[in-house]
Amino acid sequence: MKLPLMRLFQTAASVLAHRLPISENLKILLMEGDMSSKKAGSLFLTAVLLDLIVYVLAAGAAGYFPWLYDMVPSSVLSEGVLVLPLLIFALCTPARFCEMFPFRRIRIPVILLSLLLMAVLLPMMVLCNWLTMLVTSNTAALLSGSITAEPMWLMILIVGVIAPFCEEIAFRGYIFSSFRTTGRIFGSAVLSALLFGLMHMNLNQTCYTFAVGIFWALAVEASGSLWTSVLMHMSFNTVEVLSMYYTLDLQTDGSAGQLVNALEGSADMQSSSLMILCIMAAAGVVLAVLLLHAIAALQGRPFGIRRRKNAASPAFQGEPDASASGSDAAVSSAALCNIPLLLGILLSVAYIALSLWLVP
Hints:
Layout: H1 3-19, H2 24-31, H3 37-61, H4 71-91, H5 97-100, H6 108-132, H7 139-148, H8 152-180, H9 185-198, H10 203-223, H11 227-251, H12 254-263, H13 271-298, H14 328-332, H15 339-358
Helix pairs in contact: 3-4, 3-8, 3-15, 4-8, 6-10, 6-11, 6-13, 8-9, 8-11, 9-10, 10-11, 10-13
């Protein structure tokens, strides 16, 4: 988005924020300074609160509008509770669009390495999925019936393309970039991944999305572009959707059925298979680290997770930071954690724990 148009939207959002019937503290937070960890935490808290409110309203209206629990409207609602506050916070943040959402051009070899990175992380995700299956259900398997009831092209569009894009611009875009201003690169990756996992509001998806979310954030750090995590997220979701449509056909064959059960996190996995999966997951993590360094080298960028005194947006690392405000000492002393962030984490953890207790 061109700078004048972005500034026009930000000015309009500033005027609107001052006129909206919201608390003065929220108005001050929305309009204060550039990106910060406090704004990222407040965005997450807002999204969690909005998600809980929509859930309660939808549950109350389900008797009159049962279609609200269909896959398409529920997906629109779940992404809307994230995108709406994201747009408000982004438009009220006086920072360049490419700092909040670093969509930097990447080379074809980087695209291929990103897809390979996603592939080597699959054993780790399957392992995390299996571990959570010891105490809870497989969420993807529970949603399979609702997804396959819709046309395949529609689910690929919504679950495989739109949902990953919305989640990436939120968690690896605005939130990771905001945390990154503290100079704590690895901590920012871990924290943004934790929020990404918790936003799913169930233990099963929280665990493996948290694990893979760390590498998606590091991929953005390595490439300097949000496109890497967007492509990886889209490819994973699309493959998962396609596998749901072909699961019934595969299960007609015994050996194929065993493979499907393993990928879906069957709780009766034998110890020998578990050992092999652990080895594959460990090897995948090592390969993933090597691929991250290769991606950074192809993009001509330094890659590391050490704390930095002045951490601009990933797309501007190594370039003059025209938008940096405050001294390096102020940046390095900024904290990752804040009260809105902790409140959002506590609320989401409490909801997950309550759900696990009521519906194991």
